[in-house]
Amino acid sequence: MKIVGGGLAGLAAAAKLGATGFEVDLHEARPFLGGRATSFPVNPAEADSPRIDNCQHVLLRCFDALLDFYRRCGVEDKIRFYDRLYFVRPGGGVDTLERGPLPPPFHFTGSLLSMKMLGWADKLSLIRCLRAIPRERRRRSDLDRITMAAWLREKKATPRAYARFWRPLLVSALNEEPERSSALPALQVFDEGLLGSRASYEIGIPAVPLAELYSAALERRLGPRVRIHLRSSIERIDPAGGEADYFISAVPFERVGRLLPGLSLDIESFEHSPITGIHLWFDRPLTELDHAILLDRRLQWLFRKSETYYLAVVSASRDMMGMTQAEIVATAQKELAEFFPDAAGAALERSRVVKEIRATYSAKPGLEASRPAARTRYPNVFLAGDWTDTGLPATMEGAVRSGYAAAEAVIAAAAAR
Ligand SMILES: Cc1cc2nc3c(=O)[nH]c(=O)nc-3n(C[C@H](O)[C@H](O)[C@H](O)COP(=O)(O)OP(=O)(O)OC[C@H]3O[C@@H](n4cnc5c(N)ncnc54)[C@H](O)[C@@H]3O)c2cc1C
Fold it and tell me: Could you tell which of 56, 396, 400, 404 is best to mutate to test the pocket of ligand 1, judged by most ligand atoms within 8 Å of the CB?
């Protein structure tokens, strides 16, 4: 059994197949595992340089497959969960989203009604839209043909509710602007993530650099049947070559054409959407909040990595691709001084901007039909990856689910032999 790709999708498939008794060889082109969810030394020239994540990777409590995978890897205790989301306005005002005593989908009613960032008309429109989500998601068949912004206009979401609630949450969940993203994955994220259960919205943040979650120790955890080959780039899978009995391709969409030229996949429909991570080290603390959604400016989220090290994130950051590192850092500094006026005099000691141009695919309308299933026209070749038909946008949860689905398809194929 040969798996190509050591990101979460390939690793999840390896974990499941190894545990089921398959002999697995996993090939990863790079010298480390984790794919797009990884870390690197701040200064590669320094031997003991601290490792930073390429960008913050956040999970939700409802990411069942990812949490199962973390348990298999023995790292589930390395994730810290938070049951409050903070919305910070320029000037420093903070609103909190947290569950109250009511059962879902009414558990946020108290905190939504008390938000100062919204007026009464905004709150009423917000509650009306939230109530419509589970119903519309089940009943409507046109959701992948319209944008989420069109859906919100149809539901008469107010401009302020759009700007201060819907857009900040959607752009980070889908890595796409609501004006460009399909309503289908957007409603799915809100239905399962925010409204699914009382705890589903809790956000999980790894307490260690991502690379420590999938370190060399992982091979031992996955058992003697899983062999991981790093720096092992696979040029092509030959389904009839007899090199392995089964193959799983767990590479990103832009790589699959070269690996499996015989498959007629609609890759042209996929486009990338970038994410920019701005790592900033100050001479003093900016805030005591561990994480914050930043409103009305370019920065979207801030994560406090230590007392003085902060990571600001901008999803769907196309407009930052043409900016220099210095311009991006200056923008971030100026905006953070507005959000945290008490720390406006903080001096920046070090910075690092990471532009991930190929962060995820863009979840545009009409794409769902182009996302392929795990099975292919070759009975011994299967597909995994966050871009395949997982029913989720490009997330770590989607990647793990795709790996598990590909592994289950292999198990079923082997049983039918
Ligand atoms: C900046 C950024 C922020 C993100 N934030 C979040 C977040 O907060 N929450 C969240 O859930 N998700 C987030 N994501 C998305 C998440 O990282 C991805 O959805 C997920 O990691 C994809 O996993 P994958 O296994 O499908 O693909 P990848 O991680 O891309 O793995 C594919 C692997 O295949 C390898 N490979 C490619 N070609 C070959 C070859 N020919 N031979 C051998 N190996 C090959 C690659 O080196 C790579 O390691 C973020 C992504 C980025 C980039």
Answer: 396
